[in-house]
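Quarterly update from the structural biology core.
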Amino acid sequence: MQEGLSNNSPKTMNKKFLLRAGLIAIAAAAAFSGWQALQPKNTLPAGLASGNGRMEAVEIDVAARTSGRIKEILVNEGDFVQPGQVLARMDTQVLEAQKREAQAQLERMKIGIETAQSGVAQAVAEKEAAQALLAQRQAELDAAIKRLDRTEQLATKGMVTLQGLDDDRTRVQSARAAVGAGKAQIAAVSAAISNARSQVVAARSAVAAAKATVERIAADIDDSELKSPREGRVQYRIVQPGEVLSGGGKVLNLIDLTDVYMTFFLPTQLAGRVALGADVRLVLDALPDYVIPAKVSFVADVAQFTPKTVETTEERQKLMFRIKARIDPELLRKHVRQVKTGLPGVAYVRIDPRVDWPAQLQIRTSK
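Predicted structure, tokenized:
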């Protein structure tokens, strides 16, 4: 009687329950393992390799070239933009005032050229007058010399007084002095012409500098309209209207959806066999039914993950090299509205060009 009670006690029943549960769990695990063993293996054929990666695109920062205040931003995050499209405008009141000031200085410099040219013309006229006066003085000198010669001949015959001879000699000396003064005046006027011409050159240089200032300010005003350098999508608005930026301050961040690629990593033994231009197939986690074609555009020449030492063959095989697979821009343009960056996925690269792609990796870019 006591033995029967012992077999049906709660403690005995709990042991039986735990034993049955354990047997069921073991049977389920065995069944699951058997089911897994019967499933087809998702292995790649020799000549293909794969690596996990993430979609990326070329990013462009649209920045203000000069300091100033943001007047307006014409696009929002997510907007698609075209090359040359105005994205934002800076306040240009100060630049417009500087341009007007520079234009006024330019006009004043132009007047300076006219003044300098008038000085050259006046100096040239003075030189011509001095040359005419010199010719007159030279003629007077020649006449005085001839008269002196005749007077000296008459004086030897006693036909001219000594006073007359002295007077003719004085006239010759006076005429020579006048000729010398005329030559000095011509030299002075010639120097004045050179000086006036240098003033013309200086005035023209000042005009060129003033024009350059006007053009520089006009370029700054033109740069105050921030334009898209290429086709893309606005990713971030970094500032808001009314904020003041320093030179080079970022306003917007764009991504070029025609320059999209996946970055992935392969170990040494595989990366060393990847050729630039090799075919790649990309499968994104979010779009597993699509297989996107790409080409290898970059293979790093320096390992990205490096052990502390690489003294053995095993350690060298642990080195991982970065590889970029770029999608055809024409394909991206066809699906530009659906292109997304940041999505994770798998890149399959053909390291042996003789190997055919398996059925599951045939190109599928649309349903």
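The first strand starts at residue 48 and ends at 63.
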